[in-house]
Q: What sequence folds into this?
């Protein structure tokens, strides 16, 4: 029997987090939600998710900073990171590349496309951006 995959979701909008959790639960993932970058790092000290989904704009520490820190830790370096953002500018895209994000996804999400992208990232594919 295959083990349940764990996905960390860090976003400061509770309503959005609930939607993401509902979408991911359709595919049987265990979803851990936190409200900001500091909470994400605190959780990551003790756990290794199969995927991290991080919002760019969060209080205390943004998703790009969390991603960059994850990619510098040997245990977390191989964890795929999806960055979510309402921003559609070149600067955000450049910062996501520098942080070594595996995907940059605009908000609002399209449920079916989002779930397919999650499956592809968990399978080791990258999402060009």
A:
């Amino acid at each position: 029997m295959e083990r349940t995959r764990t996905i960390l979701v860090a976003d400061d909008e509770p309503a959005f987090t609930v939607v993401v959790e509902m979408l991911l639960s359709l595919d049987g993932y265990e979803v851990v939600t936190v409200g900001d970058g500091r909470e994400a790092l605190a959780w990551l000290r003790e756990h290794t998710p199969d995927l991290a989904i991080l919002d760019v704009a969060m209080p205390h520490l943004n998703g790009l900073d969390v991603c960059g820190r994850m990619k510098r830790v040997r245990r977390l370096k191989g964890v795929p990171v999806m960055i979510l953002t309402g921003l559609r500018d070149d600067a955000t895209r450049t910062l996501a590349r520098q942080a070594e994000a595996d995907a940059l996804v605009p908000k609002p999400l399209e449920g079916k496309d989002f779930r397919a992208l999650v499956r592809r990232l968990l399978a080791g594919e990258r999402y060009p951006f």
About this structure: The chain has a mean pLDDT of 93. The domain at 6-122 is CATH 3.40.50.2300 (Rossmann fold). The beta strands are 6-10, 30-34, 51-55, 81-85, 103-106.
